[in-house]
Design a protein that fits this description.
With 59 residues, the protein is an all-alpha fold. It is built from 2 helices and no strands.
């Protein structure tokens, strides 16, 4: 088994800036939570993809 090698950052290097994350508006937050807690019914394409006959055998 091989182990990962880590390289320390040099003292003069800066970490890349974190991306700016804009908070959700109250309406967007409410919509997100509504969909999270009450997801829509799966459409035909998703039902076909999840059909048992498409299941891959485990090895």
């Amino acid at each position: 088994m091989s182990s990962a090698t880590t390289l320390p950052l040099s003292d003069d290097s800066d970490l890349p800036p974190l991306p700016h994350v804009q908070p959700l508006s109250d309406a967007d937050r409410d919509l997100f939570l509504a969909v999270l807690y009450n997801p829509p019914e799966p459409n035909a394409a998703l039902r076909r993809l999840m059909a048992p006959e498409r299941a891959k055998p485990t090895t």
